[in-house]
Amino acid sequence: MRMDTKFGWKLQRLAKKLWFRAALYALAGLLTALFSVFFSPALPPFVSAKIGADAVDNILTILASSMLTVTTFSLSIMVTAFGAATNNGTPRAAALVAEDPTTQNVLATFLGSFLFSLVGIIALSAGAYGEEGRAVLFVVTLGVIAIIVAAILRWVDHLSVLGRVGDTIDRVERSAGHALEERRRYPSLDALPASAHDLFAPVDAIMIHAPDIGYLQHVDVAALDGIGEKFGTRVHVLAIPGVYCDPSRAVAWIAKAGNHGADEAEMTAAIASAFTIGAMRSFEQDPRFGLSVLSEIASRALSPAVNDPGTAIDVIGRLTRLFWLFRTLSEEERPGKPRFQHVTAPTLSLVDLFEDAFDPIARDGAGHFEIQIRLQKTFKSLSGIDAEMAAEAKVQSRRALAWAERSIAVDDHLARLRDAARQIEALGAGAER
């Protein structure tokens, strides 16, 4: 799903909130209970005599009490899963567990069923249902019970993985993969790629500074393009999502010349409002964040308190897959002409991506031979993508080897690592930093 506009991005984030889905299901439960009142006149009188509708009172009472208990119990399980994701992975990954659609659907089903039962009991007590209405309510209640049973079966199966470190890593990898795939298709957020000239504003340029303090979460490129078209100028974006901003930092600039004139204040305010800044980084437009979170999970696994090199090796394998995903494009996936012609924006720095992903693992796994040899194999694999990747892989290979030489005392292990690093150095040429 594209998130060019701030409204679309905020709507997508709103849809991931637990209360949003629960509110929709609760509203559906309320409407379903009231449906029986208005639909009952269309039901032939003899139908109610053939359906055991008298039992609906007891069924609704049982549903109301049991669904409240199950909802409370499920919420406690969800909170425990948040804690497990934080303790076994990283606090940055807990947000993805909270956005789990299966958990949200199950909890919303339980809450909606509770409200359905509650409204049904109240309506029955008020005499809102006739005999036909009770028959309709009975049939609808059977349908709600079927939905509840399906939700419970799905929930029981889901609990076997919720909050576990493997499940947390899967979620982070998927989020990072989606962000990288979006950036692969639109390297400059579907704007014109910023040249070296675009990244350095002239002395007479109009600078637009960050409107708040925090991490840049989203850039409304569509709004910036509309502003540029309206005022006959081009907006040069300097900061992309993931950058930490404060009011002293320029996030964009525009040329002084142009027909903005007296509307300059209005224009700069509109440009600044296109940059959304928050207290925490978000996964959607910030691929580096996903890589950093994966690296954090690996670092925690390598800590003496956890001592789980296997998880770190698993993370390295996933990082390898993500880099291949990011740098390999089919002909159909190659970026076309940027849609927003009045905006320039920087592309992701491959140096930053490598450092976010591998530097912490190389540092914290310096004394683990199995980690270091896996890193060297990864760098060799990534060297086969293209010359730019090969050049950065060589830099990372040397850096990881330097960490290993300071911590590994076994000569045979060091010899194997040095041999692996030499093989990477001997691979295809590329401009080196």
Shape: flat
Q: Which structural class matches the secondary elements?
A: alpha/beta
Query: How many domain regions?
Result: 3
Give the averaged pLDDT, no decimals. 84
Task: Tell me the helix content.
Answer: 55-70%
- Ranges where pLDDT stays below 50 over 5 or more residues in a row are 429-433
Strand content: 5-15%
Using only C-alpha atoms, the radius of gyration works out to 28 Å
| Strand order, largest beta sheet | 1-8-4-6-2
Termini distance? Answer: 36 Å
The DSSP helix count reads 16
Q: What's the helix-strand series?
A: HHHHHHHHEEEHEEEHEHHEHHHH
Largest sheet at a glance? 5 strands, mixed
Number of strands: 8
Provide a descriptive summary of the structure in words.
This protein has 433 residues and is α/β, with parallel strands linked by helices. The protein has three domains: 158 residues, no CATH class; 91 residues, Aldehyde Oxidoreductase, domain 3 (Alpha-Beta Complex), CATH 3.90.1170.30; 122 residues. The protein has 16 helices and eight strands. The strands form two sheets. A five-stranded mixed β-sheet has the order 1-8-4-6-2, with helices on one face. A three-stranded antiparallel β-sheet has the order 5-3-7. The longest helix has 33 residues.
List keywords for this structure.
433 residues; alpha/beta; five-stranded mixed β-sheet; 16 helices; flat; disordered C terminus
